Amino acid sequence: MGRAETLKALRADAAAARLAGLSLPQGAAWANAARQGALALVGAMGLPTKRDEYWKYTDPATLTAGEAPQAALFTPDERPVFDGVDRLRIVFVDGVFDPEMSDDMTGENLEIERLSTAMAKDIHWAKDLYGRLETEGHDPVERPLAALNSAFATDGVVIRATGKVRRPVNVSYLHRAMHSDAILHHVIRVEKGADLTFLENGPAAARLSKVMEVDVADGGAFHHVRTQGRDHERRAVTGSYARLGEGSTYKSFTLTVNGRLTRNETIIHLTGDEAVAHVAGACVGDGKDFHHDDTVFITHDAVACESRQVFKKVLRNGATGVFQGKILVKPGAQKTDGYQISQSLLLDDDSQFLAKPELEIYADDVACSHGSTSGAIDDTALFYLRSRGLPEKQATDLLTLAFLAEALAEIEDERLVDDLRGRLESWLKRHR
Amino acid sequence: MSTEEQTQVKEGVDQNTVDAVQRLSGKYKYGWETEIEMEYAPKGVGPEIVRLISAKNEEPEWMTKWRLSAFARWEKMEEPDWAMVNYPEIDFQDIYYYARPKSMVEKPKSLEDVDPKLLATYAKLGIPLKEQMILAGVEGAEDLPAEGRKVAVDAVFDSVSVGTTYQKELKKAGVIFCSISEAIREHPELVKKYLGTVVPASDNFYATLNSAVFSDGSFVYVPPGVRCPMELSTYFRINAENTGQFERTLIIADKGSYVSYLEGCTAPKRDTAQLHAAVVEIIIEKDAEVKYSTVQNWYPGDENGKGGIYNFVTKRADCRGDRAKVMWTQVETGSAVTWKYPSCILRGDDSQGEFYSIAIANNMQQADTGTKMVHLGKNTKSRIVSKGISAGKAQNTYRGLVSMHPRAKNSRNYTQCDSLLIGDKCGAHTVPYIEVKNNSSRVEHEATTSKVDDDQLFYCRSRGMDEEEAVALVVNGFCKDVLQALPMEFAMEAQQLVAISLEGSVG
């Protein structure tokens, strides 16, 4: 059997194992059709194995296993993130909507409802988006886990912003059961000139699969800030699919603290001229059981668009950080400004950083650059701080925070920056 | 010809650059053919052909067995498809695996006995197979010191080596420089000890095929403490139609030795594509140093992508001893498809690997090239500088790996890849893999022109240049350094490259 056939057989086996325990949720005709379509895609593609080039540095086995591996619960000693922000809060506990803890789903310039409600309606605008951006995202790399999500997602939120939305929408994911396996899917449409801030926080479940499809119309703006919770044993695979219209903006920041396996994929398609996409992430991990993977794929398909990727990882005690980033500039996407930086700070000798920062460029009038570095704390800087009387540990923390600062700076709301920085500081203190 | 048409280029790319690229890759000077009677093995490949090649080279049995086991493996392997290159499927049974000039059937005793047609071929290529002080007609020759420069040449014509110059003088220094077929006969102990230890017979599809059917190539052994008294060079020429060239080069630099090795290659213009699958293995022992330079100028095909050489090459250097050093320099201008990743295994502590590359792809050419730096020893250093230039409808990809193993403490890598696109129909791509498994090592990968030496920039600016001019000057100056490191043989082609600036370059 040739390599291609072997791979295909392995993928089919993985899909069969995962699909065995699942059944398609039922809804309106269009929703059922979308789910069937997604299921057909999974059937055609199979599910990934570690022999896939796209999964070179992260083993997807526990993400495709029939049953979610258990994850112990963790009780944080801090107040929940975003608590200080006036927001519309929606809560999912182990992937199940919790009406008690959630706010009323109403707001100015805002239409919001649960995915399960929307998918039961015969006529709904989400029909044109659900599973669509995800499907388009399979070219040129297949991402079957996202298709699996579109087929089997049980719930999520469907949001339409029609103007400037003053109160951010916050989805909180609580984790209460050791074996929970959550599949959530959000559909978001930001209309022409509208502006929405979307906040996410929490560990969600023992295993989370989440897809978010965001369509930003001309001149719209979407701001996304997410923290992935502190449960040490949780696993998550998330996919953010965005399509950007002319002059629109998409800005996203993710903070990941702990977690056994996190794979965050971001697939952005710049389809309108002068669109802007910024994607940033910071992660801190301690121990051999920490594996964090940022996979970003940005396609420039219009003139004078700007994209920016900033990813920083702090790793210690055998933690693993992965970055796979790609800027694809299609023919004719002139005046593209693409920037990508991925850096890791290895606090000890056992940790590792694996990166594949790619550029694929088919237009000549572009300015694209990427950088990637990896190394330890700078001895000279450490020496300087110690000569000023700072104890070594404190000096190390300070330098570590300085290293992460560039990624945090991507968040526009300064209150959030301060809050997240404070959390990082206390994490570093605990993990000295 | 499409290359003659006015190419649309963006602002900031000067006409000299465009002209220089077109001069280099637009017209192919070496497309003529030598009419000579050839002897062929039957078309196609199978164990009998492998045995035949082995027999033609009068090889001992262990060598034949080695080839046959490689062939058995190859039959089970699949052609790699991960590179960003597209070409029609290769029919491996439609190629001649062995072709030699009839006049070479009886081995000539000395260079004087070689068929004058062959000597004339090399003379026409600017590589006279005469033991003379300096190659005539090379610009700048008059500036050389009075004693001149000697270069020993091994000339490979299709499947066989036609002659090697300066063998006697090299022998005096203890250096062995001959064709690999001769080495297998004359120095079996060395070949047996080293062949396949850097690029194993099972390494990859093309290397395995090469292990089975390689017909000739060069062999170099520099004994301990010897500084090779002259530069060594091999000149490869594919002449016969429908013939694949599979050469094998084995270079061994024993403890504390030094050698500089050059490689050049050309082929006639033909409408059908031809396969070239070479393997180069370099072994560098403690304190030894090897410089390996290539100007690859195989026929690139015409402007519509018809014909040209498929250049699928595996090159690897193994720094086995402490403080071993290797430097790859390559100027890639030819071939329809290039698939080539000269690599460094930095096994010895404090060993050092360098890779300097300029890859130019024009018309329908496709190049997927780069390097691998595998850091295994402590305090190892590597540096990668890659400049890719695409024009016409060409695709140019840098693909590289930097791997810091857990044991490779305090190691260092610096990578810089710049690309320049000329016209809006071509593509430039970068696919670096970075794997860092210890924290005392530093790895930097960058692809911006803003990081040129700040002091130099400051100096230029203080002399009244604007930023862009200053950057261009510094980058050009740097390029020049790499190019000047190339030996005289390549100077004429390479000097033209100096005109290429990298304004507006992308990562």
Folded structure, characterized:
- The complex is a heterodimer of chains A (432) and B (507).
- Chain A is 23% helix and 37% strand.
- In chain A, strand 1 and strand 2 form a beta hairpin.
- Helix content of chain B is 22%, strand content 32%.
- In chain B, strand 3 and strand 4 form a beta hairpin.
- Chain B starts with 14 loop residues before the first helix and ends in a 10-residue tail after the last helix.
- Chains A and B meet through strand 18 and strand 19 of A and strand 22, strand 23 and strand 24 of B.
- Strand 18 of chain A pairs antiparallel with strand 23 of chain B, so a sheet runs across the interface.
Helix content of chain B: 10-25%
Based on CA inertia axes, which overall geometry of chain B fits?
globular
Which stretches of chain B are poorly predicted, pLDDT < 50 over at least 5 residues? 1-5, 132-148, 448-452, 496-507
Strand order of the largest sheet of chain A: 2-1-5-7-9-11-13-15-17-19
What oligomeric arrangement do these chains adopt? heterodimer
Radius of gyration based on Cα positions of chain B: 22 Å
Using a beta-carbon cutoff below 8 angstroms, give the protein chain pair with the largest interface and the number of residues from each chain. A-B, 39 and 39 residues
Structural class call of chain A reads alpha/beta
Pattern of helices and strands of chain A: HHHEEEHHHEEEEEEEEEEEEEEEEHHH
Terminal CA distance of chain B reads 30 Å
- Overall tally of domains of chain A: 1
**Helix tally of chain A?**
9
The number of strands of chain B is: 24
> How helix-rich are the residues of chain A, as a percent range?
10-25%
Structural class based on helices, strands and sheet pairing of chain B: alpha/beta
Per DSSP, what share of the residues of chain B sits in E-state strands of 2 or more residues?
25-35%
How is the largest sheet of chain B built, in terms of strand order?
Answer: 4-3-7-9-12-14-17-20-22-24
Hey, roughly how much beta strand do the residues of chain A contain?
A: 35-45%
Radius of gyration of chain A: 21 Å
Please mark out the parts of chain A with pLDDT under 50 across 5 or more consecutive residues, or reply none.
none
